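Q&A log
Question type: sequence-to-structure
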Amino acid sequence: MAATKSSGRKSGGRKYGQAASKSVKSAMHRKKSGTLRSGKGGKGGKVKSRKQAIAIGLSEARKKGAKVPRKEAA
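Response status: OK
Response body:
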């Protein structure tokens, strides 16, 4: 009997929904074209960081009600 290494999740379900994936993809495109901005209402500066673009995409997905895991306390 082979022992299998199990991750935290059961039944191999997706952690992020497809809508969340689309939202992040859109944010990455906007970052690349230079139109993605940070801050409330997009009034902040241009986003230069890849990590920040992903965070903005996930945040937008959360607001739309997409399947995105809760933020972990840092």
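Response note: The mean pLDDT is 86.
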